[in-house]
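Incident log, structure service

09:12 report received: a user says their structure output differs between two submissions of the same chain.
09:20 pulled the input from the user's history:
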Amino acid sequence: LVDDDPFLGSADAPIKMVEFSDFQCGFCARFAQTTLPELVDHYGDLVQFVYRDFPIFGDPSVFAALGAECAADQDPDAFWDYHNRLFENTATQDRRALDPDFLREIAADLDLDVVEWDTCFSAEETVNEIANDYVMAINLGISGTPAFYINDVFVSGAQPIEVFFQIIDAQLIALGIEPPERAN
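09:34 re-ran on a clean worker, output below:
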């Protein structure tokens, strides 16, 4: 489930958590803004958190996925900044339409090379990367966002963070690794 998609954590982590997500999905935004940072802080290099595109809400979702992919092409860290900006927009009441002009603005705000970003945005290779993630999700039987695979365990939809802690801790224990203690 992991190819050259953006990730947080260690590439050598014993646990791979792959999220299939859409930048227009409100539940995906909530996961990105609240659950993901806490999981990253808690597990560190024990879990590799991978982002895969599953743009199910039409052209604006595809445009957003293209924009984020093009940020990643310039700098892997820029992907996460771009990702966060997109989800901040999704979570706000007066959100802007995810059209190419707004997406280009984000690229410029993040000091990306906008000419390079524009070239990437319209490149067939970038479209194919998004399409490959989408087809993989469909082939796995995924029909909504967010959806996750934590190693071989499927988790569908927005879940309380405790669900993720339980699954990841159980998988670490099965591998003979003591999970990090949680603060009360």
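09:41 both user submissions now match this output. Likely a transient worker issue. Closing.
09:42 reviewer note: Residues 54 and 92 are 21 Å apart (CA to CA). The helical segments are 26-43, 59-74, 76-91, 100-109, 114-121, 124-139, 161-174.
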